[in-house]
# Entry
Amino acid sequence: MARPIQAHIDLSALESNLQVARRATSARIMSVIKADGYGHGLLRVTEALAATDGYALLDIQDAIRLREAGFRQTILLLEGFFSAEELPVIAEYDLTCVIHSAAQIAMLDACQKNGKLDVWLKVNTGMNRLGFVPPQVAQAMDQLRRHRAVRDITLMTHFANADQERGIAEPLALFNDVATPYRVARSLANSAALLRYPETHGDWARPGIMLYGASPFAGVSAQQLGLKPAMTLSSRIIAIQELRAGDEVGYGALFRAGHAMRIGVVACGYADGYPRIAMNAPVLVDGQRSRTLGRVSMDMLYVDLSALPQAEVGSRVVLWGEGMPIEEVARTAGTISYELMCALTARVPIKL
# Structure
């Protein structure tokens, strides 16, 4: 009999969340599907989001897979190309590239097909990750507009604090200042900006985390935003232990029972992608809320059954997803829902 852990991917939730993005803006939607569709599976996510206007990812091989699978929408390489040798393939498959450095502009000379490449010029408005700082934008724009390989240019930026109280006012002002002279398309909004700041919507919005049913905001739930979880990680209780006061649980004895209690051992651990440091994390046991106890092991974790006398071996445990917001679990591990989704390991069976 197979180990009972599984991840259920709800394709209809992806479709529903895309519609939430559509209702929030009149901009075209560039669905972000990097990191294997945030751990949900590249091709299944792409198919579920087929109503989108474009897809954004990192790996050129993934982009080729989408083209060969028949997807004709705009496909944006978010980090562009890494060598001149990639340019003929990019042109052949009609891929769109982010240009974030002078080195990439220099590489464009290797493209043999005139007027074939669409590019997105990235403006660094304070995140200091990728992109041209505002004083460099005019020269970069001039080089791209005159370059024989370039067909179309979009200006873009990325916000570091759209989900925070600090917001987007300062980077938005910087971007607007450098973009004003140019009559080109613009792309600024990630999920947080799309939902909170309509002034950032531009011509292309780039939702990511919201498409997978998680909130980009610490104080607002996905349910409040009308989003549905696309991934539910669940398993079952495989053993029950009766503890006496003073008994300890798991590696390092990080939990000690203060009184007699029941605990359930669940077939899920950090080798499945559940965070090792998530202690006292919320779970659902047969639909009832409980919590984890002690340190997560490679293959198992422990849940409190003290208030759940009906729980038994075989009881279903939802680690995150339907009924158990992934954001709550992420907070107990000191991380974000993105990391939990992306950390799901290959040994976890996927159910559609």
About this structure: The domain at 11-211 is CATH 3.20.20.10 (TIM Barrel). The chain has two domains: 11-211, 231-351. The mean pLDDT is 97.
